[in-house]
Amino acid sequence: MGQDEGGGVLKGLATLASMGITLVVATFIGLAIGIYLDKKFSTKPWLTIIFLIFGIAAGFRNIYTVIRKYG
């Protein structure tokens, strides 16, 4: 295994790890916004559900753009 091959593996693992973190963070941000707005407007649980779905969609969109960028 050459030096370039080892670096490629590490770069690939780092990209995969960042995609996972991106999905989790986007989901939690959407969830937090939904919970906050539900408390503010007393619409429990509707805004939490809607913003959770938006957060999940944003996370998958970010993963999609990374996959398109790096092939």
Protein structure class: mainly alpha
The DSSP helix count reads 2
Query: Oligomeric form of this entry?
Result: single chain
Outline the low-pLDDT stretches.
Answer: none
Share in β-strands: under 5%
Order of helices and strands: HH
Major β-sheet profile = none
| Spatial extent as radius of gyration | 17 Å
Explain what you see.
This protein has two helices and no strands. The protein is mainly α and 71 residues long. The chain is elongated.
Quick description:
The protein is built from 2 helices and no strands. It has 71 residues and is an all-alpha fold.
Topology at a glance:
Elements: H1 3-41, H2 46-70
Question: Which labels suit this protein?
Answer:
single chain, 71 residues, mainly alpha, 0% strand
